[in-house]
Design goal:
Blueprint (H helix, E strand, L loop, with lengths): L6 H8 L3 H24 L3 H26 L7 H13 L6 H13 L9 H4 L6 H12 L2 H14 L7 H28 L5 H11 L1 H14 L12 E3 L3 H6 L8 H6 L8 H10 L7 E3 L2 H8 L3
Parallel strand pairs: 1-2
Length: 301
């Protein structure tokens, strides 16, 4: 990108900020806490459904911040970056930054190639409207989430031929910290007198709305892109305030820019987008006007 950006512009788009990283994490948890507080104060079907959608999107937000941590963008200090990513973003959603980093860097090296580990997420599209409706129903009813979590837990338990001690150690290594963080979250809510918020407004969103918006994100980012063009191996999707609130938090919609310069922190991607536009380069990017357009593209008939 040195061909298009001068030194000052390169510094502006690549500068990392611990303050920005901490702010995004605090914002994410503040939104989650506010949604839970709303239901605790005024429990009814409408507030519960709204909170599930808000929290499910913020759980995707935590996954996005894990992604940012995998790229080193949450803090200027790598140890702090990893701590923030692991303990405040990954473990609450049963994830792990270092394992994700290894997987994700392979995706960047092999984007849209046969060896791309993410190819299966976008390859089935376009599909039929009936097919995508079935996928949405499976996501919202928890079938997708339950299947994925069950596979994750079974893998962490090892195989029946392993000694029990080895299986316990394997589970502890893979999911021990995640379980500890989640037990602490459940205990904290119980201490406040609202134990039921943990299963209702943490586990249910994780298995339902989080699955749906993750699917939509995956479709938007790489489905039906021009894999022979390095400017178009990923897609940027316009997101208004509603889209950012319920589908695409923390600049995740700027995915074409991310693949062009993977070391640009997510909070600098809007600036990079504006600079590309000012230089007349925006038409080179693969873009869509919104997430409704994503679903129409994914299932045209």
């Amino acid at each position: 990108m040195n061909t298009y950006f001068d030194r000052a512009e390169m510094r502006a788009v690549t500068e990392r900020s611990t303050a920005w990283g901490v702010f995004m994490i605090v914002h994410c948890w503040a939104v989650i806490a506010a949604a839970m507080a709303l239901v605790a104060w005024l429990p009814n079907p409408l507030t519960i459904l709204l909170a599930i959608a808000i929290i499910g999107t913020r759980q995707l937000g935590l996954a996005i911040l894990v992604h940012e941590g995998a790229h080193g963008g949450l803090a200027t200090n790598e140890k702090l970056n990893l701590w923030l990513s692991q303990w405040l973003c990954a473990y609450p959603t049963f994830s792990e930054t270092l394992a994700y980093r290894r997987y994700h860097m392979k995706h960047h090296r092999l984007t849209q190639m046969r060896e791309d580990p993410d190819l299966s997420l976008s390859a089935p599209f376009p599909t039929t409207r009936a097919s995508i409706k079935r996928k949405i129903i499976r996501d919202l009813t928890g079938q997708t989430g339950f299947k994925q979590r069950r596979a994750q837990f079974m893998a962490a338990l090892g195989t029946p031929d392993m000694a029990m001690g080895d299986r316990v150690r394997l589970f502890g290594a893979k999911l021990g910290r995640a379980f500890a963080v989640n037990i602490a979250m459940a205990a904290g809510l119980a201490a406040l007198g609202y134990w039921w918020l943990y299963p209702l407004l943490w586990i249910v969103p994780l298995l339902t709305w989080h699955m749906l918006v993750t699917r939509i994100r995956n479709i938007a980012e790489h489905a039906m892109v021009h894999d022979a063009d390095p400017w178009r191996i990923a897609r940027t999707t316009h997101a208004n305030w509603l889209g950012r609130a319920f589908i695409a938090p923390y600049y995740v919609n700027y995915h074409a820019e991310h693949h062009i310069m993977l070391y640009v922190p997510c909070y600098r991607l809007p600036l990079m987008h504006r600079l590309l536009d000012a230089k007349g380069l925006k038409p080179k990017l693969e873009t869509l006007p919104g997430y409704a357009a994503v679903l129409r593209m994914a299932a045209p008939a």
